[in-house]
Amino acid sequence: MLKVMFVCHGNICRSTMAEFMAKKHVKDNGLNDKFYFCSSATSTEELGNPVHYGTARVLDRLGITDYKQKRAVQIKKSQYDDFDLFICMDSANVRNLTRIFGGDEQGKIKLLLSYADLSRDVADPWYTGDFESTYRDVKIGLDAFFKQQK
Known about the structure:
It contains 5 helices and 4 strands. The chain has a 4-stranded parallel β-sheet with strand order 2-1-3-4, with helices on both faces. Strand 1, helix 1 and strand 2 form a beta-alpha-beta unit. The protein is globular, with a radius of gyration of 14 Å.
């Protein structure tokens, strides 16, 4: 089983969107025994807070409802050995995560859009309010990620 943690700054917008979209893909395609997904933050700013209402609207529209109990959590250094991949939403997350872990000896830290051969960050709706652009970026990244896992 491939264990993947999605990571963003606060764990209320992008990483939670990726987590629950990935879980839906796995469920819809009968891949539950192949993947484990969760998400976390590099910061402490949103700890304990629920999914942002803009992300909730996107997930609701997609028929995803299992996010409602999700609360923001911060990643811990000790989790490096527990996961196969840490998929970050932007380059600042990569830097912060590398600092938290004290490096990335096993090359586990990736950018989501790098799976689609894109060298840019997932749009951050915290600043733009544009959750549709974030959704499109997450979908592009996840589609490419799952295609590479076949």
